[in-house]
Amino acid sequence: MMPTILIIEDNQQNMYMLSYLLTQNNYNIIKAFNGLDGLKLAHENNPEIILIDIQLPDMDGYEICNKLRHNGLPKNTTIIAVTSYAMGGDKEKAIEAGADGYLEKPINPETFVGQMQSIINAKL
């Protein structure tokens, strides 16, 4: 059985693209369009992987990462920031907040799943 991935993303087009790519690769998908729903769904479903946009309407992805890491989420959960924030220091800030990896938008549909899997494998 493939792992469950929680996607926390407020942009409909980005959510569609990520969901489509991951479903095509046999992942189970849970969708949240804001941080509060994302936190709730993470604790209800304990997904193996969480993809988080940094720029969300209610709280930023850094805050979500921090809350997930310090509020009972299993330690082996892989959190990946998927963001258009690409300034110097943003990757480090995401890692410091609790993300295991960082992927820039726009994503490349040809390489995204492989890049995600590399981050997951590096954590194992």
UniProtKB/TrEMBL annotation:
Keywords associated with the record: Phosphoprotein
UniProt-listed SMART domains: REC (SM00448)
Domain Response regulatory: 4-120
Entry-annotated residues carrying 4-aspartylphosphate: D53
Cross-referenced InterPro entries: Bact_response_regulator, CheY-like_superfamily, Sig_transdc_resp-reg_receiver
Pfam family membership, one: Response_reg
Regions annotated as coiled coil: none
PROSITE patterns: RESPONSE_REGULATORY
Protein name: Response regulator
